[in-house]
Structures are given as structure tokens and as C-alpha cells.
């Protein structure tokens, strides 16, 4: 129940409308009395009953997120996790392919060093014309 007149508090952002607020009092489940300034509908008068959300301690709080908000967060987290896994797997495959490519290049260079002089007919450094 409101215990004072409605006033206006600045909105959360620079271009948002002012928020109507009024002092209100209520009892929690332990029957403790709470008094706090809470957001109210714009035309609320002193003594009117207003609905508000309270936390576990009985203090005023914002409404819980709706089903659409929860679903959107779940989809966002799932998409982010899938993207992270795909990026990590791609990085692992890329690193493995670089290792395999380097190993293959070294093996090819070693084999080519032994085959190329005979294949091309050129002498290797330190090799004479009668040496084979």
C-alpha cells in the first residue's frame, strides 16, 4: 500500500522517461514491515494498493525474466557454446594439419635429396664423375 504521493525519478538512461515512484509499505512472509520507494503506475494516489515483486528477504525487486527472455538467453548460450566448440575443433585440426604438412615436407626433402642427383644427372657437391 502506498503511504505517500507519487513523484517521478529519472529514468535509467539519458533519453528515457522519468519513472513514477511512491513510498509504500508491506509485510513479508515473516510479518516484518518494509517501507521503500517503489515504481508505481502514474496515476497512483496515497493509500492505494499496488502489486510489487519481493525477494527472499522481503525487499522490493524487479519482476523475474519472462519465458521469452529465458529462451533467448538459452539459445544465445547454446549458440555461443557451439561456436566455441567449432572454433576450438577447427584450431585443433588446423594445428594438426600444419604438423603433418611440415613432417611430410621434411620427408619429401630428404627423399628428393637422394633421388634428384641421379634423376637429373647432376653431380652432388664432393662427387666425382666416376663416383656413384
Short description:
The protein is α+β, with helices and mostly antiparallel strands and 132 residues long. The chain has one helix and five strands. The mean pLDDT is 88.
Q: Topology as H/E string?
A: EEEEEH
Count of DSSP H/I helices? 1
User: Strand count, sense and closure of the main sheet?
Assistant: 3 strands, antiparallel
Secondary-structure-derived class = alpha+beta
Mean pLDDT: 88
Q: What is the share of helical residues? A: 40-55%
Computed CA radius of gyration, to the nearest angstrom: 38 Å
| Weakly predicted, low-confidence segments | none
Proportion in β-strands: 15-25%
Number of strands: 5
Shape field = rod-shaped
As laid out across the biggest beta sheet, the strand order is: 1-2-3
Q: How far do the termini sit from each other? A: 106 Å
Amino acid at each position: 500500500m502506498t503511504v505517500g504521493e507519487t513523484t517521478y525519478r529519472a529514468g535509467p538512461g539519458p533519453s528515457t522517461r522519468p519513472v513514477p515512484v511512491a513510498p509504500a509499505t508491506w509485510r513479508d512472509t515473516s510479518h516484518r514491515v518494509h517501507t521503500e520507494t517503489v515504481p508505481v503506475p502514474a496515476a497512483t494516489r496515497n493509500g492505494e494498493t499496488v502489486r510489487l515483486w519481493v525477494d527472499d528477504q522481503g525487499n522490493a525487486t524487479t519482476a523475474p525474466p519472462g519465458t521469452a527472455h529465458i529462451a533467448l538467453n538459452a539459445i544465445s548460450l547454446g549458440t555461443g557454446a557451439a561456436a566455441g566448440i567449432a572454433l576450438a575443433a577447427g584450431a585443433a585440426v588446423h594445428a594438426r594439419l600444419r604438423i603433418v604438412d611440415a613432417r611430410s615436407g621434411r620427408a619429401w626433402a630428404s627423399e628428393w635429396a637422394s633421388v634428384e642427383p641421379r634423376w637429373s644427372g647432376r653431380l652432388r657437391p664432393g662427387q666425382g664423375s666416376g663416383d656413384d
